[in-house]
Amino acid sequence: MFDFEDKTYIMGILNITPDSFSDGGDFFSNDQAILHAKEMVELGADIIDVGGESTRPGYEVISDEAEINRVIPIIRALKENINIPVSIDTYKPNVAQAALENGVDMINDIWGFQKDKRMASVVGKYNAPVILMHNQETTEYSGDIMEELISFLKISVEIAMSNGVDRSNIILDPGIGFGKTLEQNLRVMGRLEELKVIGLPILLGTSRKSMIGKILDLPPKERVDGTVATSVIGIMKGTNILRVHDVKENVRAAKVADAILRGKFYG
Fold first, then answer.
1. Taken in order 111, 117, 121, 122, is the CA torsion positive or negative?
2. Whole-structure pTM over 0.90, yes or no?
3. Which class is 9-262 in CATH?
């Protein structure tokens, strides 16, 4: 599905939630969501990531049924209207199952298969590509944060592979903004290249997050410039996929960074 040697891929965020931290309610109707997805594709997105439950700090958990009712009509419509892979952002096995049954191409689990172990068997049954993110309930770390993060992700990879997911279908996410303070997020960003020791592609999701907001003292929708800065740093440190709200700006930044780092230009 992806040739990570060729370019940095851009994942466009499609939140169909009323309460996401940055764009909650903006694309809550089906028509708005499909239109926005098409716009992101036209701007250069390589993947669309659908989210039916907010994962912002203090988010409200919704039922499996409610999440399924939100995301499945959108997934079906996306598969009919766009020609790039569609991902589902969920940690719930029933939601993942329904999404895969309706043609979703990949799973994005913010708990790295460690919140509900049934997720691994669902995804393994389809051997679908999966993004496994580092996450934890607190910001307490007993030792070096990168060592603990890498250890967590190695466990996630083992869970995935033992349930039938090919190693070649696994992508890792350091979980910027999840279970980490501002200082910890900055430390992870500064040492992002250490994740390469696992030998798998890396997705970076910093778009409009509070780390950027605290540095710049700006609200979510004014954090585009800061996001682009993290995106370029991420590419320089080995990131393969950028998960973003603002597709146009990040596509342009990635093209320049790729041209410099890879020594070639792609159209």
1. negative
2. yes
3. alpha beta
